[in-house]
């Protein structure tokens, strides 16, 4: 149910007013243990900070001045305002903004039914893994790779721009359990890198060159699977000619890797027929799309049909969303451009659920300014009074996945889980609120009043899965059907026709990136939070800036100093920790904590440019800053 690779099977019990959780030992991937943040879920569920009554804003946006009202009044107000906005500005001035706060089929998608029915504008998701998705489609026709249960049959897994010891613990333990050799390619010596057999420490946004150089060495030394490539690859000869003139000296200079490291990678990867888990984290940069296209070629060179792990799609959940209720094609608004659309006055009504954009979107100063200066009516449905809720006109309390029926698939493995309610505390589910709004709007369509169980059972039926089996075991595996590559040529495309049709180069291209400020700011995932979630309930965050001692020395900065980190988007103050795990020229702040608790977060500094040609994917990591000591 959480926005996390593992989608654990959890056994929960509510007794004497207390929740207890443990891992389901029967589950083949997530097994009998929970990660450190999963184990603390009772604190989240029973938090005294959970919203209990709807709120209507009485003060300035962000001031925190609200009045508690009853559900009837709140729903009536939202429905009236929705109706009024559609009448005076048209249905496309209404936008529903949602993400993966809850990934249950019903609670992720059912509210969208209402907005489809009303023909409103819809969000085009680009916040997380979009550029890589497009890139993998260019090469394989799909971003769905290997079933992680196949890990047991492999010798080598490369974690490329991923920190699974923090973000995909069960996946990492699976590789360990089956004694795979583990390699990590990262800019930073992460906890995963420290536990890997080999660590390739690369300069930011130079992955394209590294992957192309590895491909070149594999081709020129005939380390690749010639027969597989002849039969299944489109554009191999052209690709071979493309990498031929690539100078290794240039690659060494740009990536910071040594010649031996590049050779070791090529020879070792070919010998052990490696697979690659391609990270979501690292592709969130302007170079992300091109990098993933280049990396995707490597497992095919050693003869894997789908030798990468990126995304998983096991079941068709579109029934829950109900796009069939539309009578007009949707106007799609790129997620990363929310501020721009608000500034232009194109959005007059914003309905947010399952997301905390006032922590998670980049360039927070711009977004907050846009909201303050516009007349957009904002409704937020959340479990807590988040930063987004603080800027809203109406706040509706949500309940949690412990309190309702749903099913969830995973973006990592092939198991679908049944989620059964264990207790009921406060708030209403996403689907309940949808039904209440539909009723208040006088909508008669029966599709808006289906129960959660009806939707769940229908999705199972569409996918040929058994409700009985799911109820018995709590999860079912969706078997993989034999599949081919759905590219224009029907082969793995080293020369991508799909990319060409979008005006991109037929082969992955390297572009040198440099910012106006000297230090590259990376804002990766933190171990004890899920993006902004759990900050308020666990209180376990790490707001320090991590910096290389040499960069600090040049600036007269010492361990523990208070510093100001700034660029043209914003300015934040925090303390410094010095570490050689972070290379020169790079600094780190962990992503997206609650601004109302910390006073700031990394997204006051991040870039809101998007990866052009790759679905307007986010480019958080293409940000540069300067750091000075406070009082210097
Ligand atoms: N604990 C925890 N787990 C989570 C989440 C969470 O918030 N907390 N979030 C979930 C979600 S939504 C997602 S998308 C995933 C993200 O999971 P990951 O992909 O593991 O996430 P990140 O830590 O953001 O990024 C991984 C690494 O990319 C590296 N990196 C940055 N730039 C470059 C580059 O140019 N080249 C290379 N090679 N590496 C680079 C960073 O140093 C970082 O270590 O995790 C999921 N799991
Ligand atoms: N700087 C920087 N920023 C990043 C990233 C980065 O790498 N760097 N990573 C990005 C990535 S990968 C992602 S996926 C996004 C995530 O962006 P968001 O989805 O906005 O992030 P979350 O903090 O997980 O917010 C989810 C919200 O949903 C609420 N919620 C949970 N369950 C329910 C429910 O059942 N009903 C309702 N109504 N609400 C619920 C939670 O309380 C929480 O407030 O952030 C992005 N932001
Ligand atoms: Mo994500």
TrEMBL record:
Required co-factors: Mo-bis(molybdopterin guanine dinucleotide)
Pfam families from the UniProt entry: Molybdop_Fe4S4, Molybdopterin, Molydop_binding
Residues in 4Fe-4S Mo/W bis-MGD-type domain copies: 1-47
Assigned keywords, A-Z: Iron, Iron-sulfur, Metal-binding, Molybdenum, Oxidoreductase
Keyword Oxidoreductase included in the entry's annotation: yes
Iron recorded as keyword: yes
InterPro entries: Asp_de-COase-like_dom_sf, MoPterin_dinucl-bd_dom, Mopterin_OxRdtase, Mopterin_OxRdtase_4Fe-4S_dom, Mopterin_OxRdtase_prok_CS, Prok_Mopterin_Oxidored
Molecular-function annotations in GO: iron-sulfur cluster binding; metal ion binding; molybdopterin cofactor binding; oxidoreductase activity
Family: Belongs to the prokaryotic molybdopterin-containing oxidoreductase family.
Name the record gives this protein: Dehydrogenase
Native organism: Thermococcus profundus
